[in-house]
Amino acid sequence: MVSRRIIGFAIGKMLRQDGWAEKYNPKNQFDVNQYDYSTCKEYLAALKEKWQEYEDPECELEEYVDVNKYSNYDDYAYDVDVYRTRLEWRDEMDFDCEFDVNPCDFEYEEYYVKALKRAWKKELDPYDEFEHIDLEYIDDVNEYK
């Protein structure tokens, strides 16, 4: 009688753990064994560590994409990709990070470029001595200089 209860409890626990894996790691992409964890919260925390190791191993985007705010890998991976693309804008326009304009603060590239060009003007022509130069047609800070 007691052993049946114990077996029933164990099977129930394993089914719950299988449910966690099915919900949060359906493709079994990440090597996190659900049976090693007592609670779903612990399992999900371990899984999120794996997500971050895979998508953002240097943690360069964690202030913009906090893995702890996600409940599924696909949404997290998508947002990491979005912010990584934004960093590529900087690589194209401000490779040396000479100007204090963070592309991750902008939803669209055109807004980032406009802010960056304002920073160029503020830094290189603070007194507006060269107002005849139209930044609209310049895409390189060296050309502007």
Total of DSSP H or I helical runs spanning 4+ residues: 5
Instruction: Give the % helix.
Output: 55-70%
Rounded mean pLDDT score: 91
N- and C-termini, Cα separation: 85 Å
Portion in beta strands: under 5%
Going by helix content, strand content and strand pairing, the class is mainly alpha
Cα gyration radius (Å)? 25 Å
Q: What do you see in this structure?
A:
There is one protein chain. The protein is mainly alpha-helical and 145 residues long. Helix content is 55%, strand content 0%. The protein is rod-shaped. The termini are far apart.
Spell out the blueprint of helices and strands:
Elements: H1 2-24, H2 40-55, H3 73-93, H4 109-124, H5 141-144
Summarize the structure.
This protein has five helices and no strands. With 145 residues, the chain is mostly helical.
Key attributes of the depicted protein:
145 residues; mainly alpha; 55% helix; rod-shaped
